[in-house]
Amino acid sequence: MRRSLYSLLFAALIAYVSVSGDAAQSARLTPPAKQGDFFLGYFDTLALTADYGPFNRRPAWIRKWTGPVKVILDPGARHMRPQVEKTFARVSKWTGLPFRVITGHSSGPAQNISTGNVIRIKLIETADSARQFLAEDIVCQTETHGIGGALHTAFIILSRSYTDCLKHEVMHVLGFDSHWRPSEKSHIRSVLAMRESPLRAGDYTKWDVMAIRLLYNQRMNPGLPRQEGLELARELMAGGVQRASLPPGGESQPVQ
Question: Running DSSP on this structure, what letter comes out for residue 242?
């Protein structure tokens, strides 16, 4: 009898995130309060809390892309095109936005890029990363720009020896500026944990996908202040509109 009760409790740890409010969903379940609080703390940390120091301050509000995005690979990164296309195809499913990957024709100044929503990906020699980033312990970096929380331009720079940073940097480029480095013990794993952290995942976990889908819910408007964003996130979870599962026991598996 006890075993059945525990099985039922664990089976309830499923939630779904929708970018469109699609009604064609089966088994809409809301995560128990404790799991929901874990997730909200994680979402707050990544999307609404700045942890990148005094020289890059940004308002604590929702930041996201709102329309089709062109992803331009610099010529030196053209061999990564299949990997980049696969990554953004998955992201497109979770955000509801089209991402079109193309290869640039020159490696001219970063300012000379197409108009509209653009993400530019550049590959540099690992030996040059310390000079490029002005830090010894940074090997990849993402920079995003927007107006009123609506992103329009971004740059991803990867070191040649650390192209496995791609998924980490792509999640940053979607509007998750901060890293996952909880001060207390956590069972949540994420691609946005630091490289040396045991919480670092090599692929997007269900927690990551749930956060992406929540950020790109149509009601999460760019510029929405932090407190309102958290209140809306809690409301959406209570309404059972999530489509990404919260893994039982916090076990995080890659999501296709």
Answer: -
